[in-house]
Amino acid sequence: MSRKWLWFIIGLLTVMGASIAPVAAQSGIVWNTEFFNNNILYGKSIAQRQDNAVAFDWGNGAPQSGINADNFSARFGTDPFFNQGTYRFWALADDQVRVWVDYGRTPLIDTFTNASVAKIVSADIQMAQGVHHIQVDYAEQSGNAYVFVTWANLATNPSGPNFPPLNNSNPVPVSGPWTAQYFSNPSLFGSPALIQSEATPSHDWGYGSPTASIPSDNFSARWTSVQTLPGGTYQLSVKADDGVRVAVDNIYYLNEWHSATAQTYTVNVTLAPGQHTFLIEYYEASGVGFMTYNFALLGAGGGVATPVPTVPPVITGAYMTVTGAYKLNVRATPDPINGAIVTKINRLESYPIVGRNANTTWWQINVNGIIGWVNARFVTAFNSAGVPISSGGVVVPTATAVALNCSTAPAPRLAAGKYARVTPGLPNNIRAQPDSNAALIGQIPPGSIFAVLSNATCSSGLYWYQVNYNGVVGWTPEGGSGQYWVEPL
To answer: How far is CA 430 from CA 25, 65, 169, 419, 476, in A?
Structure first.
C-alpha cells in the first residue's frame, strides 16, 4: 500500500471517529438490562429494562415482580465513550459477577471461577479513545443479593470506588429505595463520585454538599427507582434550587434544567397499575442546594387531568417530526390554552399521525399509546395527504388506509413499549427519519438491546421503528431482502 493511500485511510477513520464520539458520549450512561429466572443466564430473558448504573442492593428480595428472590441472574450492557487512558474497573457482588470489555474472549473480572463474595475486586485495562462495549453478568444463588460495578481513568481518578454500606439483613421491597449517583460537575458527566442507595431523593444540603468528595456548588445527581403502583392519576410536585427534570417510564414530565431559586413545579401523571421506572436528575449551581420530591395519588375530584380520548386504530401512513421546538407539549385537545398537557416530546422525535383538525393547524398523534394533539407550526408532517379529520378527539372511522409498498420486507415483529436486539452480523443504523436517505445519527452494535418506541412504519420499502438506544432516539429498520436484522425479546 502506498503512503498516500495509508494517510487517506487514517484521515478517513479519524473523521468517522469524530462524528460518532459525540453521539456516544451524550446524556450519560444507560444500561440495557435483562433478567433470567435461573442463575446461569440461560434461555430467553423474562424481563428487560434500562438502568442508569449497575448499583443495586436487593437484600433478600427480588429485583422486581416476576423475578426470583434467589437463583436469578442478570446481564447489563452499555456502549459508552472513553477517552484514551488506563482504566480501573471495580466490582462488588453477592454472589458472582463478570465484567467484559469489547466482546473479549476472557472477562476482565470474573468471580464465577474465582469466588470473591462480598469482596471488592478490580482490574486495569488500556482503552483507546472511542466507543467501547461493556457487559456485566451477575448471578445470585441465595440469601443477600447485590452488585456494584464502576470504573475510572487512573490519570484523573486513581482512588477506589465509594460503594455504599450494604443491606445484609432486611429484604428490599419491590417499590424499594432509590439508587443515587452524585457527580462532581453540574452536567452529570463522566463516572459518579458517589453511588449509594437512598430512601428518598428529597434533600436539603443548604450551603453544604452531599459528601466530602462532592463540591458544595456545581454538582449534579441522578436518582433511579422501579416502583410498583396502583393505577390512577398522580400529582408530581418538585421544589428545587437549581435545575431538575423528572421522567416516568422514559417520558419527561418535568424538564426545568436551568438556574432557579426555590421554584415549585407541578404536573399530573396518569399511570396504569404495575411497575414504573422513575428517573430524577438535578444540578446545583451556587448558593443553597435542595430538592423536595413528592408523588401522590390524587383522590376523586382532586384535580385529575382531562382524560385522553379513546381513538380507534387508524393507520394513515403519516408521521411527523418535531422541528420547531426543543420540547413540545402534547395536549388532550387542539387548544393551546385549555388543552390539558398529556405528555411532552423532544426535538427530532417522530410519531405516527392519526388525525387532524378541520383546518390542519393541529395534528393528532400517537405517542407510544398516548393519543394527543400537537400544533402544526412546530412539526414537519410526512405522507399526510390522506390523514382524516378528527372530531371531538375521536378519529372519524370512515378514513381509509394509505397503501405503502413494503411487500419485500420481512413481516413486522416488534411492538411499541417492548425491547428488541440486533442480530449477529452488522450494526443497525439509527436515522433521524424512517428513510434510508435520512441523516445517520448513531448505530446499534450486534447483540445490543434497545427500546422500541413506536409500531412499524413503512417507508423506503422497509419497516421502521422509532427506538431509544443509550439515549439516542431515532429510527431503525427491521430487515430487508427477506432477512431480519433485529429480533424481539
So the answer is: 16, 32, 45, 15, 5
Q: Which residues face 369 on adjacent strands?
A: none
The CA-atom distances, in angstroms, between 362 and each of 2, 330, 333 are: 59, 10, 9
**How far is it, in rounded angstroms, from Cα 138 to Cα 55?**
12
Can you give the pLDDT at residue 138?
A: 95
Q: What is the mean pLDDT of residues 156-170?
A: 60
Reference 423, options 414, 431, 415, 432; nearest CA is 414
Per the structure block, which three cell numbers stand in for 29?
450512561
Three-class SS state of 435: coil
Q: Is the pLDDT score of 19 beyond 60? A: no
- Structural domains of the chain, with CATH: 30-297 (2.60.120.260), 319-395 (2.30.30.40), 419-488 (2.30.30.40)
Residue with cell 417530526: 321
- How high is the pLDDT of residue 263? 80
Q: In this predicted structure, what is the pLDDT of residue 316?
A: 58
What does the alpha-carbon distance between residue 22 and residue 15 come to, in Å, rounded to a whole number?
12
356: β partners: 363, 389
CB contact set of 56 (below 8 Å; sequence gap of 6+): 63, 145, 146, 147, 148, 179
Please, are residues 285 and 186 in contact by the beta-carbon 8 Å criterion?
Answer: yes
Instruction: Taking residues 242-266, report their average pLDDT.
Output: 85
Q: Which of 404, 408, 388 is nearest to 480 (CA)?
A: 408
Cβ(390)–Cβ(397) below 8 Å: no
pLDDT at 330: 85
**Residue with cell string 440495557:** 32
Residues 60-81: pLDDT tens digits?
Answer: 778 887 888 888 999 999 888 8
Query: For residue 485, what pLDDT is reported?
Result: 92
Rounded CA-CA distance 379/377 in Å is: 6
Burial per residue of 245-256, b for 16 or more beta-carbon CB atoms within 10 angstroms, e otherwise: bbbbebbbbbbe
d(CA 441, CA 430): 6
Residue type, 113: T
Q: Which three cell numbers stand for residue 40?
A: 446461569
Q: Is the peptide bond before 51 cis (omega within 30 degrees of 0)?
A: no
Mean pLDDT of the chain: 78
Query: pLDDT band at residue 137, thresholds of 50, 70 and 90?
Result: very high
3-class secondary-structure state, position 431: strand
Helix (H, G, I), strand (E, B) or coil at 15: helix
